[in-house]
Amino acid sequence: MSAEQTSAKGPVAERKHTQRMVHGHTLVDDYAWLREKEDPAVAAYLEAENAYTSAAMAGTEELQKQLYAEMLSHIQERDVSVPFLDGDYWYYSRTEEGKQYETYCRKRGTAEGPTGEEEIVLDLNALAEGESFLSLGTMTVSDDAHLLAYSIDNRGFRQYTLRVKDLRTGEMLPERVERVGSVVWATDSRTLFYTVEDEEQKRQYQLFRHELGRAHTEDALVYEEPDERFNIGAGRTRDDRCIILESASHTTTENRYLPADRPEGVWTLIAPRRDEIEYYVDHRNGRFYIRVNDTGRNFRLVTAPVESPGNEYWEELIPQRDDAMLEEVDLFAGFCAVWERRQGLQHVRVIGFPGEGPELGVEREIAFPEPVYTVHPHVNRTFETGKYRYAYQSLVTPASVFEYDVATAGQVLLKQVPVPGGFERERYASERIFVKAPDGVEVPVSLVWRRDKREPGRNPLWIYGYGSYGYSLQVGFNSNRLSLLDRGLVLAYAHVRGGGDMGKAWHDAGRLMNKRNTFTDFIAVTEALVARGYGGAGRVAAEGGSAGGLLMGAIVNLRPDLYRAIIAHVPFVDVMNTMLDPTLPLTVPEYEEWGDPNEKAAFEYMLSYSPYDNLAAAKYPAMLVKTSLWDSQVMYWEPAKYVAKLLTLKQDDHVLLLHTNMTAGHGGASGRYDYLKEIAMDYAFLLVQLAAV
After folding, report:
1. What mean pLDDT comes out for the span 182-202?
2. How many CA atoms within 13 Å lie on the side-chain side of 314?
3. Active site residues
């Protein structure tokens, strides 16, 4: 890119007119050439945008350093996770000051606790030497505890390489397989099952059986999924007796099983797939326990004998409820933990098994003390146990691990992540409110602020949203955000439709031909928060990533006047061009979320909100758009094209910045210190734009 191609508002990308006719509509794309990653002009444009962003942010360098120092001060750099027992070992991870990654370790021990010397299972810092990126895909120890199978991505494209390490000697075995997803040991500790992805679509579609010592080219292909909507994954049941192979689209699943001690046996189908029916399988005492949404969207729990697992033999244990989403069932020898979501919040019921049959007995619900929180199962590897671990946190309570005694209902706090640097929980407040959407639906919103900084109607307000795939928006503690709260920002999390916060119906109400609800919900939340005094008009920022980046692109097209600043991470903004290209990763499976644009009605609906296609001559907020060159989920060219086009249309003097991480993928920098620097940049942008510095 030449100097003449840079304007006062940013680098100007060359326009190369292309168009095509689809369903009677002309789609114009003048920046399609940015897809050519190997073209030097593409790299030149991205580097020019990075240089422009650095120049535009130059006045915030001291602020970024200050923010980085603050965030670092709230992290205990040298720390150890809560150990968990698996077989004869207690496993844990630890971090060391100045090191980017975790080290995974273990010690021999008994149920009473660790007794042996530390053994290093896997040191990610050693693996990261000489690498600009490192991501751990999976790691699993063989049943005899002698071998570790793990996978690593050194680029950021979520393409993982399988390796096997002898934990007795530290020696690396010759096994090396590319593009691996799931990895599962058989009980013989000699046989590995692994899935691999299609090179073009990045769809996990084949399952292989591998015997240690043999070349992987000799591995037996066990299963191949022919339907392009489906990915496969494999894992052991909690009692370790079965290996489950799951084929799953966004709305449909199918499962097969194999006894874990018969690696060369025949895989048995549990129940054939039925469109729009999902079921998930675990095993206990010769029976499968199946969470399924065949009688209602929010799932029920049934059981069936292993010998006849088909749906005609299912016996109901927990019925489907319209007011409660059955999210998960954790099975153990003597009890199960039933995870439900009601009114957007998680609830856990612990239910005993009174006898050898599948019937349920005495139950208790674990109580949580705050109005807004996030809770999830912790590591529970022991099947024969009377204890259950869960992890709890809230917007004001740091991540905590509890152990629940099933017999007495007593609880012990095993650890709460320390937050140094002067954090005092009592200085902060959190709240859950509901906001009416345009159609009258009540949308939950979670809020947090610092008590002594609250000035109704005047605070800068930051709103975060996602709203896709049925994913619930987690509202946990993040010590980084103390830097915003301490400067007077009110932080809000909008649980808009399209997510899973209120059950499966909440997802359905924000996908396919209902997708626009996600955007109008978010706008309604913004308007209501300002009207109720949580933030000052003209001091509102919004942030979202990936599908949440689509949300950002849609709201600034619909209501750019509501927002002073927008941060969009790896945003899915080029909806039509991506969804019309079935060769791209994710496209075909995503038809169930966004729609199939080969169908005219779906095409026209998607076109009505696609951010790239609906950019117009208008005044836009200040925007920081971030992407990564090796992103495999949302290709870098989507945000690059979006910024290039927007620059030619915007009628304002607000900054428009594109920053590309040239050595990372969808999640940005992989090292914890490098990631803090990225956050410091985001926060500096926010604080300057919201006049909060």
Report:
1. 95
2. 21
3. 546, 631, 666
